[in-house]
Every structure is written in C-alpha cells, then in structure tokens.
Amino acid sequence: VLMSMCAGQEMALVHAVFGGWRTTYVKDRAEKDLNLKFQAEVEAANLTFVEYKKSQLSNLRNVLNRKAEGDSEALMHE
C-alpha cells in the first residue's frame, strides 16, 4: 500500500514539473516573439528618423548656401 502511494506521488511530481516547464517555455517563447516584433519596429523607426534628419540637414545646407551666395553677391556689388 505504501509503495503504491509513493508511486502515485512520484507521477504527480513528474506531471507538476513538466507542466510548470511547459508553461514557462510557452511564456518565454511568446515574450521572445514579441521582443523580436518590437525590435524590428524600433529599427524601422530609427531608419525613418535618420532619413528625416538627413533631409532636414540637406535643407539647412541649401538655405545656408543660398544665404552665403546672396551675401557674396551683395559684397561684390559694393
């Protein structure tokens, strides 16, 4: 009788351990997938931001060049 009780508890322990392991595995897998998704979104947003900053810098250079050309012409006429 004692041996059958111990065997039953052993199987319950095995089921509990594997059940807990499976739950942890599924949760970790979902977090990993979510992390990869958001990591890709962050990288895309960073690329968009870099392109925007390049565009703004180019516009600023053009404005400064036009201003410098205008100032040079004004000095030449004086």
UniProtKB/TrEMBL annotation:
Name of the protein described by the UniProt record: Uncharacterized protein
Record organism: Polarella glacialis (Dinoflagellate)
Taxonomic placement: Eukaryota, Sar, Alveolata, Dinophyceae, Suessiales
